[in-house]
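Quick question: what would this complex look like in 3D?
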Amino acid sequence: MAGSTFGTIFKVTTWGESHGKALGAVIDGCPAGLPLCEEDIQKYLDRRKPGTSSITTPRKEEDIVEILSGIFEGKTTGTPISLMVRNTSQISKDYSEIASYYRPGHADYTYDQKYGFRDYRGGGRSSGRETLSRVAAGAVACKILEQMGISVCAYTRSIGAIQADLSHFDRTAILETATAMPDRKADDAAISYLEGAKKQSNSVGGCMECRIEGLPAGIGDPVFEKLDANLAKAVMSIGAVKAVEIGDGCKVSSRFGTDNNDAFHLEGGKVVKTTNHAGGVLGGISDGSTLLIRAHVKPTPSIYTTQETVNKSGEEININIKGRHDPIVIPRAVVVMECMAALTVLDAMLINLSAKLENVVEFYRK
Amino acid sequence: MAGSTFGTIFKVTTWGESHGKALGAVIDGCPAGLPLCEEDIQKYLDRRKPGTSSITTPRKEEDIVEILSGIFEGKTTGTPISLMVRNTSQISKDYSEIASYYRPGHADYTYDQKYGFRDYRGGGRSSGRETLSRVAAGAVACKILEQMGISVCAYTRSIGAIQADLSHFDRTAILETATAMPDRKADDAAISYLEGAKKQSNSVGGCMECRIEGLPAGIGDPVFEKLDANLAKAVMSIGAVKAVEIGDGCKVSSRFGTDNNDAFHLEGGKVVKTTNHAGGVLGGISDGSTLLIRAHVKPTPSIYTTQETVNKSGEEININIKGRHDPIVIPRAVVVMECMAALTVLDAMLINLSAKLENVVEFYRK
Amino acid sequence: MAGSTFGTIFKVTTWGESHGKALGAVIDGCPAGLPLCEEDIQKYLDRRKPGTSSITTPRKEEDIVEILSGIFEGKTTGTPISLMVRNTSQISKDYSEIASYYRPGHADYTYDQKYGFRDYRGGGRSSGRETLSRVAAGAVACKILEQMGISVCAYTRSIGAIQADLSHFDRTAILETATAMPDRKADDAAISYLEGAKKQSNSVGGCMECRIEGLPAGIGDPVFEKLDANLAKAVMSIGAVKAVEIGDGCKVSSRFGTDNNDAFHLEGGKVVKTTNHAGGVLGGISDGSTLLIRAHVKPTPSIYTTQETVNKSGEEININIKGRHDPIVIPRAVVVMECMAALTVLDAMLINLSAKLENVVEFYRK
Amino acid sequence: MAGSTFGTIFKVTTWGESHGKALGAVIDGCPAGLPLCEEDIQKYLDRRKPGTSSITTPRKEEDIVEILSGIFEGKTTGTPISLMVRNTSQISKDYSEIASYYRPGHADYTYDQKYGFRDYRGGGRSSGRETLSRVAAGAVACKILEQMGISVCAYTRSIGAIQADLSHFDRTAILETATAMPDRKADDAAISYLEGAKKQSNSVGGCMECRIEGLPAGIGDPVFEKLDANLAKAVMSIGAVKAVEIGDGCKVSSRFGTDNNDAFHLEGGKVVKTTNHAGGVLGGISDGSTLLIRAHVKPTPSIYTTQETVNKSGEEININIKGRHDPIVIPRAVVVMECMAALTVLDAMLINLSAKLENVVEFYRK
């Protein structure tokens, strides 16, 4: 039932529906003393804002965040930080028809089965708009990680058949292209590809990836709370994600051990891995190299061609979905992935403070 | 720190190291009234027992489970069920050498970084032997699911380059072949393949899959506690798993929406999906069709060729690992995947009991 | 750190400070289908509203609740219910002086020690105003319990030396008197008593009690999650509560077993207890009789006589607190106790749905 | 359902019944590097061992603890510590009769109502013997607290009408007297008092108290996770405890503010309280003075006089309980209280490591 809380120490609770009054997040357990203002969060929200290019929904939402608690004289106080974004662009009439039937690829049927009825306006709680709250909270996690020299960077790896060329990784392109690809050439190709799909009233899937750099070794916990297990959950919980890979991911299943093990060597006296097939995690605990996570995202289920389905009266019908939908989820989901990864890693780092007794004793002896 | 507990209502806590005195699990929150005896659990443990074929470690462990609490007159009482398996075949001298260096692909380095030192005997807590506790607990979950008409079935899909042919799915072969493949021909081919690798002192990766059938629609929770997110965590937490897919998984990223949406239709008055690209889950909640999860498993990192690494004195060295290791993880990991899936699904079902107020009110009105 | 979440299934997260923009609560895990509107909550908030009598703070707050999410067509949807109350009457200048020193009996010193600094305006998060969020959430729990025939009723038992006579329990008086006593005569006496204390710039302690009626036997869990243990935590977490008793409470420590055991007998075929020394709970599980909890509340620490303390510059000083404070906490805390008890009991009832396997199996066979 | 886990970071799960094969505890989240052996735990278990004086049950249990995991080369590894004590003195025939009826003051009726049946041998999971696991785990917490200069000391304050004189607190007497009183004279008087009660086949209640010294200011969390709230839960969860007081406890309800506030002053440059009515906690957070908790314990419900009750066939009957029972719970419960307090405080201290951002950043910059 209670599925809207994430994290153990840095604990985020989100709320809100696509067409309700507002959406928001409460962060409980944020360490005290972080300088924080609305602008810190707004710049992350702006990255997932709709209506910014030809390949996102024309729905215009300003998505202005308001901090309601937890800050005093510009700094976090250690008590809950409440963040809220008012909905301003709900056009509920668009959705009145879908109340009566189940859209393929959507959660209409499953919510009805679980709860007996559903808020059908724009998908209600199951709308991608829910991720707005994750981004608001994740922006705070990112700011803390930055202070510790850790960078979290997600980007689009492929859109349909179009792959970004990562050998010339262009970090600035991620924020500047409509596709969030780190490759401007691929961005051009992907936009043509998407426009082709749009003309055919179709939608497209894609793949996004996240790199976490600067993370010290030793983060994550054994057995069930492995860092990669929690990242998999965090990323798979983003609607439309159907597969998660760590490091070389799926490729390992057809490999020999000699090709997959990462040798250790020394670099300036530091232990480092010669390769990084593992993607920065060994036995569920970070190994000091780049953490690499990949997510495969399904095509937007809202397509404008005729589809077969069933209505609530128990009849088979044909439907044509209307409304305002992105032909592809990924460009706006990239920042969501970044934020979920940041929340996961930060929480693991806070839990890790008590790993060694000598550190605990020293902390309280000060 | 505390990474050894899984689940919210049906809560499992595991403990034990590869070469300690014993391993075990405590199940807290098992509903009262389930007939349960050691044999129910033993038959699951026997499926992951080493030494049963030429392709598993020659280490012989009887792995006999003892139920220490929670059962009275043959039935669960609702209080904690404590399960223990004594270690009997520890040959600690095999491992004394590895105390001084970091094996590639293992958690030696990361545990040392996290905790300052490690139990190096057979990998200690990071050993695959830890999964014994998961299987002991999962066997109980499986028995409960069975009573509700839900079957959980995992199997090997591929080993290195050898794929099982799933079009003639042979369920009995899963339990009868050394590879746990549902295809006896592929099993033969895979064994040859493995023996080839073994001769070259190498190890092999593979892919395993799990099908959950009979699960009603409506299981799982919105946002962070999606059923597929929790399954991804559960499966990714099994050591050596590097990727998790739900339904069509990675394939969706290169697809168009028209090819990926599953239409709804009626079958005997029931709403069903025409196809199952989604793998049985929509918006994180089960949709009544088969739940399908796939895991990609890396080759066993313990290989018998010379490898480069670093020792604790800070020197680059070459090592040759000894000991008794499986050339492939999967055949014994299949039952672990089955058990983790069962634990996840059962817990979600117990949480789901309070989804609708009318059910809660009716329960207490009785 | 993260101290603002309560409950396992019916999970409440609160946020907000005395002089921030707003306060609120998010309820995650509320069963779907409960008719709910702002008025249901407002009537509970009105019971803790300040400024309603001569014995509460003259601070006027309208405390109007707004439901921001989780309701559709007048009913709960099963997704998070976000509740918010805007602050409208902050007079921050009243508090500017207290930034520099530690008020006796307040959390000024401990918050500074924990977090390095504090939001000193009106006590910030440690203000009694925080309980507004608990009442907003508790009102929803109360409404659900009502639907199951369970009533939760808290009242004032004593104020300083003045005891209510419970032998003629006057339930209507609880809502109608300024003291929330179930005895109008004692209410008169208590008001005189309080006015005497006020004249001497003093404050007064008191005792409040809560009765839960209609609760079925079998609620609560063994060992650490006993119903009385969770009630003790819930009630002790209300600022100013210094002792919690269940049933006959402290009296049991000077008693013989023959005087303390409650015999069982039959009443209309039902097992009932002849007496209720135990207060409705045996072995941490409800026994079907009235649940009785008592809380002892300290006098308001904000008093208007000169007090000795220390300032942040490390000097011993004399202070005279200003501001607008209740001479007694209890009349407004009674509804907080009621709400905390309701939240505790409801959560235990939702957890209890999976106690017996036969119920679980039957639920899913339907 | 799942009531047997305690703590967030230092997480303890207990299991076992009075007459099962064994009882035990799993500690997950114990910081790595603590020297720990069985003797460290045994000395705590010996303090609650039955059969050591005329005023405890004649049941003889050696209660020898075995450490099954989590220790390597004499130190904790950071992974789960599994502790087990085999039952050796179960005389189950003593209890066969009670299967058919509900003993007054016991959990027989409530367990039957909750689970449909119960393990009636010696009370099963609801037996006081369950606390053995708490003591085993608590001993580890105590050892860690000691390393940080924190002492936790519980003792008997009163037995029936006999009060210990705390003005000449005799710490050695706690461990050396049969009553665990810090006053040898009161111990003599209490033993006479208990023998008188025993002659009349009666039992006696009492009061126990716990002092935590050396705890730094700043421990505990706001709102629901207040240190005193968690201590109240921890102590109330011990069977037979019916009231918990912090500091002056119940007395505050009849006091004026001028008599209850603790002034601050300076002592050697340190902020200290002139008095300690608050019992060491302000706003739920420790204030650096002695933490004081008091618990009122009911008389043992197993008495040897004739009692009225109801049997499972629905008849009113008279019963005479047999078996081996303590005439008073407290002397053996004192160490349980000490352990529960230690577990609570240690967990709060580990959570507190992330309170200030500057500490977190500094930790990872090292």
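Answer marked as accepted. The first strand of chain D starts at residue 5 and ends at 6.
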